[in-house]
Amino acid sequence: MSIMQDSREATMIGRKSDGTPIRRPLSPHLQVYDMMQLTSALSISGRITGVIWSLGLLMLVWWLVATATGPSAYASVSWFMTSFLGLLGLFGLTAAAWFHTLNGIRHLAWDAGYGYDIPTTYKSGRWVLIGTAVATVLTWLIAIIAWAS
Amino acid sequence: MAGNDYARNTTLRSPLGRVRGLGSAKGGTHHWWMQRVSSAALLPLTLWFALSAASLAGAPYEVTRDWIGHPLNAVLLLAAIGLAFQHTASGLQVIIEDYANQEWVKVGAILATKAICWLLAIASALAVLRIAVLRVAV
Q: Record's InterPro entries (chain B) (predicted)?
């Protein structure tokens, strides 16, 4: 073991059962895990969708502040949200938000001690993907019906 | 190795990690726990907001304004704003801590994230309050 370069290394050093010190990879490490596996792909997607939702909150702030400002500011935010780019962004945000929500429920179940075995993890992962698709389509159905009426 | 040596290695943390002050500070789970608490609170709020926002698609200015200004919606929006930005700031903090490898970058990025989240949360809350209060005054 060499001298520490980085304060995070203290949390990356572990011991094997025979007592010899070893370096552990950072979690979630981007190079160590096979991202083609459903489990690791959904794990990193949880983070990515969290970041997307953080950016999506900017849209919420704009929408609220514009409505508080007045009709012309509201007209600009409406124009953006109904433009091609705005609709694409909102659709992506809807999918990301549902994924993060459903994957979050999965995480809460794990934290409570349920569903942590490998077969259940794969099964719940598939349900998260199915649920994301269904919830995204349903949300947009409601939006389209509201828009048309 | 003798059995006693196995017993001594009851922790995965290195002695160096502990003396550097990275061991238990008796508050190590607080950040993690608040992340779970805010996520649980955001579950029903997200469901409510997603359905409400979808049904406001294409709504004219007056309809959106009156929806935000409705007392029930205003209260739930304020709760959602506070929880969402708290959850976002602590989530982004974890990502920065995992991937930023220089101390000043890490501390700077976390402080900047928190500052932006605070300001955006205050701006959103002010917008909701302004609409809700004006609705009564006018």
A: SQR/QFR_C/D, Succ_DH_anchor, SuccDH_FuR_B_TM-su
The pLDDT score that the predictor gives to residue A36 is 75
- With CB atoms and an 8 Å threshold, state whether B124 touches A17: no
As given in the structure block, the two tokens for residue B35 are 């992340």
What ipTM goes with this model?
0.81
- Domain membership of residue A12 (yes or no) is no
Residue A6 lies in a domain: no
The number of distinct structural domains making up chain A is: 1
- CATH number for the domain harbouring residue A144: 1.20.1300.10
Question: What's the confidence (pLDDT) of residue A129?
Answer: 97
Adjacent-strand bridge partners of A13: A23
Over residues B70-96, the pLDDT tens digits come to 999 999 999 999 999 999 999 999 999
CB contact under 8 A, A65 and B61: no
Residues 6+ apart with CB under 8 A from B48: B76
**Is there a binding annotation on residue A100?**
yes
Instruction: Give the pLDDT confidence of A62-81 residue by residue, as tens digits.
Output: 999 999 999 999 999 999 99
- B85 touches A: beta carbon within 8 Å: yes
Chain B residues with CB under 8 Å of A55 CB are none
Q: Give a yes or no: residue A82 inside a domain.
A: yes
Third-level CATH fold of B34-137: 3 helical TM bundles of succinate and fumarate reductases (1.20.1300)
Mutate to test the interface with A, among B6, B98, B128, B129 (most CBs of A within 10 A): B98
Token code pair at residue B69: 């200004």
Q: At what angle do helices B61-69 and B103-137 cross, to 10 degrees?
A: 100
Please indicate whether, in this complex, the C-beta atoms of B124 and A14 are within 8 angstroms of each other.
no
Whether A24 is covered by a domain: the verdict is no
Question: How far, in Å, are A22, B18, B96 from residue B101 at the CA level?
Answer: 20, 20, 9
